[in-house]
Amino acid sequence: MRLSDFWRLMDDEFGERYSRTLARDLVVDQLGDRTASEALSAGLDPKAVWEAVCRAQDVPRDRWLGRDVKPR
User: Fold this and answer.
1) Residues 41, 1, 5, 17, CA torsion sign
2) DSSP letter at 7?
3) 13, 32, 55, 62: which one has the fewest Cβ atoms less than 10 Å from its Cβ?
4) For the residues of 17-50, what is the DSSP string, one character each?
5) How far apart, in whole angstroms, are the C-alpha atoms of residue 8 and residue 67?
6) For residues 63 and 10, is the Cβ–Cβ distance under 8 A?
7) In contact, 40 and 6? CB cutoff 8 Å
8) Pairing state of beta strands 34-35 and 27-28?
9) pLDDT 10s digit of each residue in the chain, 72 long?
């Protein structure tokens, strides 16, 4: 997963403003007690970070792939 995909999924699920706050402030144990932003900066795979955020926020698994987006 690309970093841009991670942010698209975050924005779609949590909203553009809250997704940035969540990534900056939510400490996730599955990320080694780091925030999503810290984990991404440390080089963790964006997909692993996304899935850890989903688990921590109880996002239903059927929404982990994001919404359907029509190709341009």
Assistant:
1) negative
2) H
3) 62
4) HHHHHHHHH-EEGGGTSEEHHHHHHTT--HHHHH
5) 10
6) no
7) yes
8) antiparallel
9) 999 999 999 999 999 999 999 999 999 999 999 999 999 999 999 999 999 999 999 999 999 988 776 667
N residues, the chain: 72
Predicted pLDDT of residue 22: 97
User: From the CB of residue 19, how many other CB atoms can be counted at a distance below 10 Å?
Assistant: 20
Which structure tokens are listed for 52?
A: 């850890």
Other C-beta atoms lying within 10 Å of the C-beta of residue 65? 9
pTM score: 0.89
The one-letter code for the residue type at 55 is R
Q: What is the pLDDT of residue 57?
A: 97
